[in-house]
Amino acid sequence: MSVICRRCLLADMEGEELYRSVQERIALLDESARADGEVCKARLEICKGCDDLTNGMCALCGCFVELRAAKRDTRCPKGRWPKS
Ligand code: SF4
Asked: Which is deepest, 45, 47, 55, 71, by most CB within 10 Å?
Protein backbone atom coordinates (compact mmCIF):
# COMPACT_ATOMS: atom_id res chain seq x y z
CA MET A 1 0.00 0.00 0.00
CA SER A 2 1.87 3.07 -1.16
CA VAL A 3 -0.68 5.84 -0.58
CA ILE A 4 -1.31 6.99 2.98
CA CYS A 5 -4.96 7.72 3.46
CA ARG A 6 -5.93 9.50 6.66
CA ARG A 7 -9.44 8.88 7.93
CA CYS A 8 -10.15 6.24 5.29
CA LEU A 9 -11.74 2.88 5.79
CA LEU A 10 -10.51 0.03 3.61
CA ALA A 11 -13.87 0.28 1.84
CA ASP A 12 -12.88 3.76 0.67
CA MET A 13 -9.42 2.83 -0.58
CA GLU A 14 -7.83 1.06 -3.48
CA GLY A 15 -6.43 -2.34 -2.65
CA GLU A 16 -9.29 -4.67 -3.30
CA GLU A 17 -7.45 -7.76 -2.09
CA LEU A 18 -6.92 -6.49 1.45
CA TYR A 19 -10.48 -5.22 1.66
CA ARG A 20 -11.79 -8.59 0.50
CA SER A 21 -9.61 -10.40 3.00
CA VAL A 22 -10.98 -8.31 5.88
CA GLN A 23 -14.53 -8.81 4.66
CA GLU A 24 -13.94 -12.57 4.55
CA ARG A 25 -12.73 -12.47 8.17
CA ILE A 26 -15.87 -10.57 9.13
CA ALA A 27 -18.05 -13.11 7.33
CA LEU A 28 -16.43 -15.89 9.35
CA LEU A 29 -17.39 -14.32 12.68
CA ASP A 30 -19.88 -16.34 14.64
CA GLU A 31 -23.26 -14.64 14.83
CA SER A 32 -22.96 -14.43 18.63
CA ALA A 33 -19.65 -12.56 18.30
CA ARG A 34 -20.96 -10.09 15.76
CA ALA A 35 -21.97 -6.51 16.57
CA ASP A 36 -25.37 -5.27 15.47
CA GLY A 37 -25.16 -3.75 11.98
CA GLU A 38 -26.23 -0.29 13.14
CA VAL A 39 -23.73 -0.37 16.00
CA CYS A 40 -20.96 -1.31 13.57
CA LYS A 41 -21.97 1.48 11.20
CA ALA A 42 -22.01 4.08 14.01
CA ARG A 43 -18.57 2.95 15.17
CA LEU A 44 -17.11 3.28 11.68
CA GLU A 45 -18.56 6.76 11.23
CA ILE A 46 -16.66 7.80 14.36
CA CYS A 47 -13.47 6.15 13.10
CA LYS A 48 -13.79 8.06 9.82
CA GLY A 49 -13.57 11.31 11.78
CA CYS A 50 -10.66 10.17 13.93
CA ASP A 51 -7.06 11.36 13.50
CA ASP A 52 -5.83 7.93 14.61
CA LEU A 53 -7.26 6.20 11.52
CA THR A 54 -4.74 5.62 8.71
CA ASN A 55 -5.15 3.25 5.79
CA GLY A 56 -8.15 1.62 7.44
CA MET A 57 -6.11 0.85 10.55
CA CYS A 58 -6.32 2.29 14.04
CA ALA A 59 -2.91 3.64 15.03
CA LEU A 60 -3.60 2.86 18.69
CA CYS A 61 -4.61 -0.79 18.53
CA GLY A 62 -3.26 -1.80 15.11
CA CYS A 63 -6.58 -3.31 14.05
CA PHE A 64 -8.38 -2.83 10.79
CA VAL A 65 -11.31 -0.90 12.18
CA GLU A 66 -13.86 -2.56 9.89
CA LEU A 67 -13.01 -5.90 11.52
CA ARG A 68 -12.77 -4.50 15.05
CA ALA A 69 -16.08 -2.63 14.72
CA ALA A 70 -17.82 -5.77 13.46
CA LYS A 71 -17.07 -7.62 16.71
CA ARG A 72 -19.57 -7.31 19.52
CA ASP A 73 -17.23 -7.13 22.51
CA THR A 74 -14.60 -4.75 21.22
CA ARG A 75 -13.99 -1.18 22.33
CA CYS A 76 -12.32 1.87 20.88
CA PRO A 77 -8.98 2.26 22.71
CA LYS A 78 -9.87 5.90 23.34
CA GLY A 79 -13.45 5.19 24.38
CA ARG A 80 -14.89 7.10 21.41
CA TRP A 81 -17.41 4.50 20.32
CA PRO A 82 -20.89 4.57 21.80
CA LYS A 83 -21.67 1.99 24.47
CA SER A 84 -23.34 -1.05 22.92
S1 SF4 B 1 -10.96 2.68 17.14
FE2 SF4 B 1 -11.12 4.68 18.21
S3 SF4 B 1 -9.02 5.51 18.27
FE4 SF4 B 1 -9.08 3.87 16.72
S5 SF4 B 1 -9.53 4.90 14.78
FE6 SF4 B 1 -11.50 4.27 15.62
S7 SF4 B 1 -12.25 6.01 16.82
FE8 SF4 B 1 -10.05 6.33 16.45
From this structure: 47
CA separation for the pair 57, 51 (Å, rounded) = 11
pLDDT digits (tens, 9 = 90+) for 43-67: 999 999 999 999 999 999 999 999 9
Residue 81 confidence (pLDDT) = 97
73/68 Cα distance (integer angstroms)? 9
Whether 46 is in the pocket of ligand 1, judged by its Cβ within 6 Å, is yes
Nearest to 19 by CA among 37, 1, 2, 38: 1
For residue 34, list its beta bridge partners: 71
Task: Determine whether the shortest distance from the Cβ of 78 to ligand 1 is under 6 A.
Answer: yes
Q: Where are the domains of the chain?
A: 10-70
* Pocket lining: 9 vs ligand 1, CB cutoff 6 Å: no
